[in-house]
Write a structure and sequence with these properties.
Length: 243
């Protein structure tokens, strides 16, 4: 279905503009993406509707296309140079855990780091990523940094109590810089595990560290710590290289 919108006061334009706010993303269970690359990554069932400067011929006919002008697109875009297409997507819910290694993000804050981790997780065939803040997955900077990997991963909300409930099936592996932590070079990955990486400044929270089965650290020299996105990539590579 093709429709035309010419006014910035149109209810659809106002609705999409609200989805820049994490509060509305959570309430509406919808988020926005920009650009043809991300549109191509999204599955048909995940697309709600799109706004575009001109009709897209190869899009499924069941998805409504709103033809808008440059002024509207510039108003809605979060990029410096506005995109030619913006899509509203549905957040997938009630997904089950998949894979022998689950990645758990404990209070990460930087959307660029989160997006990089999602992209890296997909590259290493991780199927499920859990975060203490589900809305962080749908921040525009995170979506861009993820390069569309959000559409190929199970993204779930987590907490310490949820981790506790998974201990019968998965071994909880935390990351820590403490002296009694296992050096990654001497660590043997269990058959099924949840790898927990922590906040950029504070690391894994004490609440979570208190319930993990083991903690591991990457051996480094000449500097105190690594960026959490880089550290996660090293840990995931170590995991797949030992399988």
């Amino acid at each position: 279905m093709i429709k035309k919108i010419e006014s910035e006061e149109n209810k659809i334009v106002k609705y999409v503009n609200k989805l820049k706010n994490p509060k509305y993303i959570k309430e509406e269970k919808r988020f926005i993406i920009e650009g043809f690359h991300l549109l191509e990554m999204a599955k048909k069932e995940e697309l709600d509707f799109i706004l575009t400067l001109e009709k897209i011929d190869d899009l499924d006919e069941s998805i409504t296309q709103y033809i808008v002008n440059k002024k509207i697109m510039k108003k809605l875009s979060v990029n410096k140079s506005f995109s030619k297409v913006i899509a509203v997507c549905k957040i997938k819910e009630n997904q089950s855990l998949k894979g022998d290694l689950i990645l758990y993000l404990d209070s990460l804050q930087d959307p660029g780091n989160i997006g990089t981790i999602l992209r890296t997780a997909l590259a290493f065939n991780i199927k499920t990523v859990i975060s203490t803040s589900i809305s962080s997955f749908y921040n525009q900077k995170c979506i861009q940094a993820s390069q569309g990997s959000i559409f190929s991963l199970n993204l779930l909300k987590g907490s310490a109590s949820i981790l506790l409930g998974l201990k019968n099936e998965y071994e909880l592996i935390g990351t820590s810089l403490k002296e009694d932590t296992i050096d990654l070079r001497n660590f043997k990955w269990p058959k099924k595990a949840i790898l927990i990486v922590g906040n950029e400044g504070n690391g894994v929270s004490k609440e979570v560290l208190d319930i993990v089965d083991k903690t591991i650290k990457i051996p480094i020299e000449n500097i105190d710590s690594l960026n959490v996105g880089i550290a996660t990539g090293i840990l995931l590579y170590n995991y797949i290289s030992t399988k």
